[in-house]
Amino acid sequence: MFDRPLKILLVSPEVVPFAKTGGLADVAGSLPKALAVVGNDNAGNDVRVAMPRYQHIEDGSYKTDFPVPFNNRHETAIIRESAIVSHYRGIQKTIPVYLVDNHHYFFREGMYMFDDEAERFAFFSKAVLEMLPRLDWQPDVIHCNDWQSGPIPLFLRTHYRQDPFYNRIATVFTIHNLQYQGNFPKRSLKILGLGDEFFHPERLEFYGSVSFMKAGILYSDLVSTVSRTYATEIQRPDMGERMDGLLRKRSKDLYGIVNGINYHEFDPATDPRIHRNYDKNSIANKKENKYAIQKEMGLPIKDVPLIGLITRLVDQKGLDLISEIIDELMEGELQFVVLGSGDRYYEQMFESIKERYPEKIGLHLGFNAILAQRIYAGADMFLMPSRFEPCGLGQMISLRYGTIPIVRYTGGLADTVSDYNPDTGSGNGFGFYEYSGKKLLRTIKRALQLYCEKPDQWDKLVKNALGLDFSWARSGAEYLQLFQEAINMRIALQRIA
Ligand code: ADP
After folding, report:
1. Least confident of 16-25, 73-82, 341-350, 371-380
2. How far is the CA of 379 from the centre of ligand 1 (A)?
3. The domain that contains 417 carries what CATH number?
4. What is the distance between the alpha carbons of residues 471 and 26, in angstroms, rounded to a whole number?
5. Could you tell me if the CB of 461 is within 6 A of ligand 1?
């Protein structure tokens, strides 16, 4: 353990509350708050965050600007400074957030999916590094997240290798979803300022492309992902997205740390977005949230089991299994409420299901954070039959609201949900392993049976869920340990050099 606070820079393409498209933004917005207070005697750490300033971000005030040597020219980076605030045990800490701007690259409608992604995020990565001496701040460790910041460890070990300001900075690279890899044509090497010798399978080449994700995995001191099970799964050919060989090579440096959720934002006792607040001593109030969501979704108001589903509508989420079993499932006395946005294919699938069972299925297509909270609060069960799931936040949020998860045991779902055992009363949900509709249906039926036939046991399960802790406290401490290890590794390497 270090006896001094660490200087930690977290770099992410999205951070709540400034920009969000997925779970990464929640992590990047809440992990720094935990890091700011964990450590020896809760002394906390000097944590700062860097992200791009997209067009829609109005926050922050001008801090500095400077030319970034990039792609054989100089591009200007403009830094604005904003902040996120952490409250913990009466202590308030302000975490600076550096918003990296360049009008050409970031003043556009939307955040991703442009033709020049390689250039945009190579620039961003370079600008973050160039910013540090201008702030007169030398972090002990840079925590990079997903492919958009993959060039940072690469740059540190190439362009900045001889520079004493940079060469003692350790790096940790976290994979939030291995499916999104940032693979670009070979000519991107020039953008990275590197020669053809880097187009080699031992370096940046990845099946004919240059991969930013591979850069992060290969050049960082330590690698992590967002659950232990996912850390193991991605080393297998069937789940490794073609990176499994590389990940096996780095196996001893690869860690899994499960995400937490923000326990202040997600609290059924105080959440202003839900119809009626409740906690483990007032679970009867939860039912009023069920009636409220039934009304809001145009369903008959009655005390039948209500299953919720809140998800991006993509293949990853196992939605084909739901389509497979829906007719048999709907034979029972229950309701199903769906909130989702994404692929048109799945939108149509749910529209057609809704048409067939208008009295039993409530459907809202689109992204709606307020409605999501009402579903978490009002549903009895929450469905996540994912094909793969690096961590998953939905199951933790639902448990926080006393809504019992039904999951496929993969990735973080396997690490956070355990099967209910009616004999011992242990477990917090229901799950299955084999990716099949039959197994999903059988698992839902087990949950329904307990709900309908053993209401006392069900209530115990709900109360137990409401008392669980999936906050960042434990995972924040694990990240801190990981950073300390990366720093030690770097110190040792420097001694050898
Ligand atoms: P992923 O990051 O793969 O989308 P996670 O479970 O890690 O999956 O995180 C998804 C987060 O986004 C959860 O907080 C979930 O409640 C929220 N979410 C997903 N779809 C919607 C939607 N259509 N409307 C509101 N919130 C959503």
Report:
1. 16-25
2. 16
3. 3.40.50.2000
4. 12
5. no
